[in-house]
Specification:
Pfam families: 5_nucleotid_C, Metallophos. Keywords: Signal. It is a single chain. The protein has 900 residues and is α+β, with helices and mostly antiparallel strands. It contains 15 helices and 52 strands. It has a seven-stranded mixed β-sheet with strand order 1-7-8-10-11-13-12, covered by helices on one side. A six-stranded mixed β-sheet has the order 5-4-3-2-14-15. Helix 10 crosses helix 12. It starts with 18 loop residues before the first helix and ends with a strand.
């Protein structure tokens, strides 16, 4: 049998204080008549008169265990008394279960079910403890936050919470509120042993529970970044140490054999920071319950101790089973996460507290502010853990940024754009999905009571602000700002820090780095918190006096709730484009993680002309803004200017298309030949002297080879823009035929598509071929899809049937198709190297076209559609020449020509 003796600091109120009592005592009235609460206002909860403090209940001396329906057995909690209980004196192993939650944030409606699930474990093993890794309160659901989180404290007490770390949100209303209001209301220990200047939560730097003769010590710490994510004036005088170092220091003392500084058999870290930080715990720490990042994960410290991070909101709880043997050796037998099961019977006691809080909150929150057809969501990693992914752009974040902009623009100050920090977005817009947004739902999205303000930044500082979203090495490597609709930017997700900002636009105009822009947001963010220190360099800070909730309510009432653009403000991009070459644009961040209908394809338009499209991979990238990726390759026109415009359009299943995003792309100018437009034609591969020399067309023209009149001799044509100029002789002068066909950006192909002996033109657009059987413009006579966008294209008569068809090269693999249709290749083979120049022709006059390669000025001629060594190696021309092959003299053998 084990006995209850609890040593607690401060005066406690009876558990009977309910949400209703607290709400009435706080003087909270219906929203229509109440101004939003001021976070800094001092509020004192009136509670029942506390019962006199007494000694612990008398120890049971009957020698019998209590009956199951009697007061349940509880555990002894030591708080640093000199007479520390002796360490494990058991002769048999003791098994202890420890249950843990984190980042609860007042989601009390989950807890009746969670209590039932945990009671199953408690019934199986009375040696069960219940702990939290922090953020029980603050940033809470409306049902709790509207009552100053008293319902949450009631629920946790009733559930038998033994101990909790403080999270950063426990400091939302300042340490004075935690010390003077919260601590007197609870029957569990709050620990923040790495918070200097706060003796109420760090003295002693542990809480020891003696359970069945085993001393279990809890060491609670909070993220060292707390000063950057809470209001500075609320934690004045406090400093926050490295939580890993402090935990290791306390754990070492607890296991050093010195009773004077406290001793324990088991050390459990309640660590309000991510599991990626907790890995540095020493071997003195037996178990870690982590938190802060709202992610579910089970991992290990470098010393091999389990780390359990149970997510958020009571949607799951951590469960560790450990055994301490007679020699004091601690073994963790199980470390798991148990999901919330709402099919179980809810615990009646907890449900009664929740029902009372709901009843009171419903009165205050029932007012309908807006009717909607599209919901706005926070970021997600799994599709159900809304809010867990703060590294991604979210429709709800952008929605609230719009509200901040409208709020400031309703004053004489005005602003250029609005933003909001992801941690300031605490709920989705329509939380119950009923098509209306109530006051209670609006409250849940922004429960902090920050005021809205503005500050001036230079354009250079706007770039810095966006760069500061990327915080490599932090437990959240990206904190993606919500942005008002009029902001667009591109970034490089492959940069060292994951997000070099490329370009930024406001109202469609590039941001001038030397100009000044006014930013609207909550004063928490404008004060430089959440790592956005650039705001501390801003000027002309102005506070509107309008609380963020009030501004958002006004935004909803104004009818803006249903204005939700589908497209993202941030686009990840890498582009490798050179005029006259095939280039590739890699894209990321094309969709929100939680969008109900995600885009399926992306289409690119270069300088107003569609150049390519691709399917979008919509798999969620956890913790980052890279969800929605695609790669599009296309032929860049030779006349593309150095600053070209790339329009990115994402298309949805239902046909909806997002707002076009315009981004400038630097395009390298085409390489201009060092010598004009002279052609040097040879009828013999072994000759070093050209048989024919002449000038035709202009420097920069696209050159094409074919037998245009069916006489058996190949000649040249040039393309200028979309106009083709054809000559039937190997000489200069005027073209014999000219016509317009295709679009700028099309890739031109040449072949005899109908077997009549005359070559004509076709174009490829994306992976679609449009072929003509006459030298004229108009509608294509043959159309089909083959290969992939980005493949290199060759034409020839591969099977000697007198009809030219298509082959594509991918790397050094050739895919030959003997019909002008889509589908699988007839033949595929590897030849040459990926960087070789490949050229199609009939090199031996047997009627079959094959493909050879050129490396430098050496041709490696292959007379079969297969791999292996070349049949012949010949040098012709110079390495930098433009090279062509054709049957210039009608002998059936293709030979070389160059243009200089």
């Amino acid at each position: 049998m084990y006995v209850m003796r609890i040593h607690l600091q401060g005066t406690k109120r009876p558990l009977a204080v309910t949400a209703a009592t607290a709400i009435a005592a706080l003087g909270i009235v219906a929203p229509a008549a109440a101004a939003p609460a001021d976070e800094d206002r001092e509020t004192t909860a009136v509670v029942d008169t506390p019962a006199p403090e007494t000694d612990a209940p008398a120890e049971d001396t009957t020698g019998e265990a209590p009956a199951p329906d009697e007061t349940p057995a509880v555990v002894e909690t030591e708080t640093g008394d000199a007479d520390v209980a002796p360490l494990n004196t058991n002769t048999e192993p003791v098994t202890i279960d420890i249950l843990g939650i984190t980042d609860f944030h007042g989601y009390i409606e989950n807890m009746p079910f969670l209590q039932t699930q945990m009671d199953v474990i408690r019934t199986s093993n009375p040696n069960t403890l219940f702990a939290s890794a922090g953020d029980n309160i603050g940033g809470s659901a409306f049902v709790s936050s509207i009552a100053q989180d008293v319902p949450t404290l009631d629920v946790l007490d009733a559930m038998g919470l033994d101990v909790s770390a403080v999270g950063n949100h426990e400091f939302d209303k300042g340490y004075a509120d935690l010390r003077d209001r919260v601590l007197p209301l609870i029957d569990f220990e709050y620990l923040g042993v790495n918070v200097d200047g706060a003796p109420e939560i760090n003295t002693p730097p542990y809480s020891i529970v003696n359970i069945d003769g085993v001393d279990v010590a809890f060491v609670g710490t909070v993220t060292e970044t707390t000063p950057t994510i809470v209001a500075a004036d609320g934690i004045e005088g406090l400093t926050f140490q490295d939580p890993v170092a402090k935990t290791n220091e306390v754990a070492a003392a607890l296991k050093d054999g010195d009773d004077a500084n406290g001793e324990a058999d088991v050390v459990v870290s309640l660590f309000h920071e991510g599991d990626s930080v907790a890995v540095g715990m020493s071997e003195d720490v037996d178990l870690v319950f982590a938190g802060h990042t709202h992610i579910q994960n089970v991992s290990e410290t470098v010393a091999g101790a389990p780390i359990i991070q149970a997510g958020q909101y009571g949607q799951a709880f951590g469960h560790a089973t450990l055994t301490v043997d007679a020699e004091g050796v601690v073994t963790v037998d199980e470390a798991a996460i148990i999901e919330l099961d709402e099919s179980v019977t809810p615990d009646a006691t907890i449900q009664a507290i929740v029902d009372d809080a709901i009843e009171q909150a419903e009165v205050l929150g029932a007012e309908v502010l807006a009717e909607i057809t599209e919901n706005a969501y926070r970021g997600t990693n799994s599709g159900s853990d809304m809010g867990a992914n703060r590294g991604t752009e979210s429709s709800m974040g952008n929605h609230l940024a719009n509200a901040a902009l409208m709020t400031v623009n309703s004053t004489a100050v005005g602003a250029d754009f609005g933003i909001i920090n992801p941690g300031g977005v605490r709920a989705d817009m329509d939380q119950d999905g009923d098509g209306v947004v109530t006051y209670g739902e609006a409250y849940s999205t922004q429960p902090f009571g920050n005021t809205v303000g503005s500050i001036d930044l230079t354009g250079e500082q706007v770039y810095t602000m966006l760069e500061q979203q990327f915080q490599p090495g932090a437990s959240r490597p990206v904190l993606r700002l919500g942005l008002s609709d009029n902001v667009t930017y591109t970034y490089n997700p492959l940069a060292a820090d994951g997000g070099d900002i490329i370009d930024v636009w406001i109202d469609g105009v590039p941001v001038d780095r030397a100009a000044t822009y006014t930013v609207a947001s909550n004063t928490f963010l404008l004060g430089g918190q959440d790592g956005f220190t650039v705001f501390r360099e801003g000027t002309n800070f102005r506070e509107t006096g309008i609380v963020d909730l009030e501004g958002y309510v006004n935004y909803l009432i104004a009818g803006e709730a249903d204005v939700l653009p589908l497209g993202q403000r941030s686009i990840g991009m890498q582009a490798d484009l050179t005029a006259g070459k095939t280039g590739t644009v890699d894209l990321w961040s094309l969709t929100y993680t939680a969008l109900e209908e995600k885009p399926t394809t992306v289409t690119l338009h270069l300088n107003g002309t569609e150049v390519g499209s691709s399917d979008i991979n919509t798999d969620v990238t956890p913790n980052l803004d890279n969800t929605g990726s695609a790669s599009v390759s296309f032929a860049v026109p030779g006349n593309a200017p150095a600053d070209s415009e790339l329009r990115i359009v994402t298309t949805f299943e239902g046909g909806a298309v997002d707002t076009d995003v315009t981004v400038p792309v630097t395009v390298a100018p085409a390489v201009v030949p060092s010598v004009g437009n002279w052609f040097y034609v040879s009828n013999d591969w072994t000759s070093t002297v050209a048989d024919t020399e002449f000038s035709f067309g202009r420097v920069g023209d696209e050159v094409l080879v074919g037998d245009w009149d069916g006489d058996g001799d190949d000649t040249f044509a040039v393309r200028r823009g979309t106009t083709f100029y054809v000559t039937n002789e190997l000489k200069g002068g005027d073209a014999e035929t000219s016509f317009v066909y295709g679009r700028l950006g099309d890739e031109v192909v040449v072949g005899d598509w109908d077997g009549d002996g005359s070559d004509t033109f076709g174009v490829r657009r994306g992976n679609t071929f449009y072929l003509m059987n006459e030298l004229k413009g108009g509608k294509a006579e043959v159309q089909f899809d083959y290969g992939r966008v980005g493949d290199e294209v060759f034409t020839g008569d591969w099977d000697n049937d007198e009809v030219d068809t298509i082959t594509v090269r991918r790397g050094n693999t050739f895919y030959v198709n003997n019909e002008l249709i889509g589908g699988n290749a007839t033949i595929s083979y590897n030849y040459g190297r990926t960087g070789d120049m490949a050229i199609a022709g009939d090199y031996d006059g047997d009627g079959y076209d094959t493909i050879s390669v050129r490396r430098g000025n050496v041709f490696f001629i292959n007379n079969a559609l297969e791999g292996g060594p070349a049949d012949l190696e010949l040098a012709y021309g110079r390495a930098g020449d433009d090279v062509f092959v054709g049957d210039w003299d009608g002998d059936g053998v293709d030979t070389p020509a160059v243009r200089r």
